[in-house]
UniProtKB/TrEMBL annotation:
The keyword DNA-binding applies. GO terms for molecular function: DNA-binding transcription factor activity, RNA polymerase II-specific; RNA polymerase II cis-regulatory region sequence-specific DNA binding. Residues 1-31 are annotated as: Disordered. SUPFAM superfamilies: Winged helix' DNA-binding domain. Pfam families: RFX_DNA_binding. The keyword DNA-binding applies. Coiled coil: none annotated. This is RFX4 isoform 12. Residues 7-18 have a biased composition (Acidic residues). Keywords: DNA-binding. Residues 32-77 form the RFX-type winged-helix domain.
Amino acid sequence: MHCGLLEEPDMDSTDEEKENNRASKPHSTPATLQWLEENYEIAEGVCIPRSALYMHYLDFCEKNDTQPVNAASFGKQ
């Protein structure tokens, strides 16, 4: 089971590889990443399913009349 929401940086990748990797992946908006940081923190030994976080995020978006990112892009940077 993958518990990490945000991806860990690959310390062995070159800058060019990192840039190519970023360009090929969908990204969350800065507002989405800010919402994650304001509502959750990383804690060792704790695992919350991405789907539970996404449901909380969708509820927030609906209450704030905000267009959510799609589930596949949620939490990626």
